[in-house]
Amino acid sequence: MSATEIRTLVVTRDSGLASTFSQISGEFGIAAQRTVNTSTNIPEELGLAKYEALLLDFETVPQTMPILTSLRRSPANKNVVIFAVVGSADSKRRARDEGATFLLERPLGGPEIRRVLQAAYGLMTRERRRYFRCLVELPVYLVRDSGEDITCKTINISSNGMAVSNPTTLDAGEKLHISFVLPGAPSQTRARGTVVWDDKHGKTGLSVECVNPQMQMELDTWLDGHFNHVLRNSN
Fold first, then answer.
1. How far is the C-alpha of 142 from the C-alpha of 150, rounded, in Å?
2. What is the largest CA-CA distance in the chain?
3. What pLDDT is stored for residue 139 in this prediction?
4. How far apart are the first and last CA of the chain?
5. What are the backbone angles phi and psi of residue 2, rounded to the nearest 5°?
6. d(CA 80, CA 86)
7. DSSP 3-state assignment of 40?
8. Most buried of the four, 38, 108, 111, 207, by CB within 10 Å?
9. Is the pLDDT of residue 234 over 80?
10. Which helix (H) or strand (E) holds 92?
11. Which among 177, 185, 176 has a CA at the least distance from the CA of 215?
12. Mean pLDDT of 115-139
């Protein structure tokens, strides 16, 4: 999976629908993955990967609410676009009540699926961007509460986090001061950080909160440029 690939999890017992939706999604550069887990209430895929959308068939999947509840409890997937496949008045009502973003009404044809995907594409792209990590190696400087300075290199950077190659083992939950310079930026980016994980073999994951909105805006603008570049080159 590329850093910008948009993914949809397809939950339906209708193999024809799954095939058609997958084919048309591909025209938009969207990868559709069908789950085989519709006989149970909660597809395990929701806890294993990041998706930008969920296609949920309210006509062929008996219990939809547990799936949507699981979705909204997932930190990575709680904001996905929800396509509800409906037919009867009851399935339409349930889909609306359960928070569907878009309704796809049977009998479904290619033009309707394309229309809805086109309308949803911007939302799905923004959701993908939220989790985009730019692979880049930059010097980054950490200061521990003890005053110890640590010079590292980034492995990747996101809007609110980074992974670094680190000569020192850090403790999960440890607070740090972070500074680095983005390529082309006029000044240093300063942030507060928290150690999220440390593999004890030279790699550390940090949550990052810029010290002021202007620095956050500069970081997000820089990331947007890289995301759009990768997105253009991957389509």
1. 5
2. 66
3. 95
4. 13
5. -80, 165
6. 18
7. coil
8. 38
9. no
10. helix 89-97
11. 185
12. 87
> Measured between alpha carbons, how far is residue 130 from residues 114, 127, 179, 209, 227 in Å?
24, 5, 22, 15, 10
Counted residue by residue, the chain has a size of 235
Q: State mean pLDDT over 130-140.
A: 88
Q: How far apart are CA 148 and CA 133, in angstroms?
A: 28
Q: What letter does residue 100 receive in the DSSP assignment?
A: -
Peptide bond into 107 cis (omega under 30): yes
Tokens of 48: 């294993």
Gap between the Cα atoms of 205 and 112, Å rounded: 43
This prediction has a pTM of 0.70
The structure tokens listed for 148 are: 């110890």
pLDDT tens digits for range 82-117: 999 999 999 999 999 999 999 999 988 899 999 999
The pLDDT value recorded for residue 120 is: 92
Q: Across the chain, where does the E strand assignment appear?
A: 6-11, 30-34, 53-57, 81-86, 102-105, 134-135, 139-144, 149-158, 161-165, 175-180, 189-198, 203-210
